[in-house]
Design goal:
The chain is an alpha+beta fold and 201 residues long. The protein has helices at residues 11-22, 42-47, 67-75, 85-115, 123-128, 130-144, 157-166, 180-190, and strands at residues 2-6, 27-31, 55-57, 63-65. It contains eight helices and four strands. The mean pLDDT is 96. Belongs to the GST superfamily.
Length: 201
Amino acid sequence: MLTLYGDRRSGNCYKVELLMHLLQRHHHYIEVDILAGDTRTPEFLTRNVNGKIPLLELHHGETLSESNAILNYLADGSDYLPSAPFLRAKVLQWQFFEQYSHEPYIATARFINRYLGLPDERRAEYAAKQDGGKRALRVMEHHLAEHDWLVGDRFTIADISLYAYTHVADEGGFALDDYPAIQAWLARVAAQPGHFDIPRD
């Protein structure tokens, strides 16, 4: 039995759990409260010295961290990860985009608002994330205006990686009204069998 350590509110944890549901991979889920310091305990740090979630524990005790690395591991050999080298590289291209151009803005703004309650001392940082997040959304909108999916002609883990924080972008202050192609893509992802969204409450 695989064990996933995560926080159900976190987009990075959600993307792994979503893929596991799509693959119908049975697993044990252990909820981790990052604000309570659960990832800094000696017990957790023996599993991931970097003290972060998600963390996947394999059958024989090996562990794997970093959400997109976990996605690539779980999706290997499935329809969610292309076998052609160029298309696999395109999946990685979008995943690197997600981690460097999308997540630092949209996910961070969402964290400040949803997890911390938008405290006064973080409002300037929250505001500073808006332009970068909108820039990332424009890149996605430009691509999705001409393509149904991010890579090739089917739903892949590239879509899962970007969907995770995009479908809750409003919680970081990013309205999607001006991004019709993204909205249509979100609906296509939501129509996948086995799909579920991050809980809003």
